[in-house]
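>> Question from a student workshop board

For tomorrow's exercise we were told to take the sequence and the ligand below, predict the bound structure, and bring the output to class. My setup keeps failing. Could a helper post the expected result so I can at least see what it should look like? The ligand is copper (II) ion.
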Amino acid sequence: MKGSTSDPERKEGDLVKKLLGVIGAVGLVLLAVTGAAGARSQAARIQIVATMVAGDEVPTPKGDVGSARGSFTATLTKSDTGAVLNWQLSFGNLTGDAVAAHIHIAARGVAGPVVVPLCAPCTSGVTGTANINATVLEAIQNDRAYVNVHTKTNPAGEIRDQVSPAATLKTSLRAAQERPKPKGKLGRARGAFTVTITKKGSSAVLAWRLTFSGLTGKAVAAHIHSGARGKSGPVIVSLCAPCKSGARGTATVDASVLNALEAGRGYVNVHTAKNPAGEIRGQLGAAALTLS
Ligand SMILES: [Cu+2]
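>> Workshop helper replied:
Here is what the output should look like for this input. Compare the format with yours to find the bug.
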């Protein structure tokens, strides 16, 4: 199975809520230009995020760092030499003042050199702009860059997270979009689906929420399928079975699912006993996760 979904535990749910909030707050329009048929979309601008904790820092930080947290959000806009980074950093519950924050290059679980100094000293809520060269851009897009915040107690870094491209997609589900055409009284059948896709190298984490009403009966299942608008296709992520309106969850997906989502080939549908092939459907737009 390419995608798996688990009911979110409270902690996970909070993280999802936080992530959705952070992404919504940036509120930028992502410009996606779809390439050749089947190719992933190449965006002129993407969003990147990091949710920092002490547990991700290497070497292990000292002191009372259990509740230390940080959030980094930025947009990357394509430039002639790489990209322009517009960033925002917030944090709390550190052991002391934030003496500096940087983007470093290294894989997960490994410490590496500073490539973008963000601030020194830093206050929570700080923003800035930096020019990123092609090498740093390549690292950011391939799960090999991280953000960390340094303190006096932890001069090597107190909180850290790998930087990940992220995109939020929304779609409205209607019976008229379903193929084959569903049966029954469906004038009031509708749904709404929101998913935040966080890319981690060649895989991604989906944090989703689904609501619906006016169906002919109980929702026996909901999925993300692969298929162009007006065409039906195979299930690529199982969301819930059976489903309640307001359901949410997270799923880790592989490169093939990620490629479908980046190419705008994903759609969401809800199945009922009367319409086992699907009663309402909504196409997902192309996820802007790769800078051209
Ligand atoms: Cu389905």
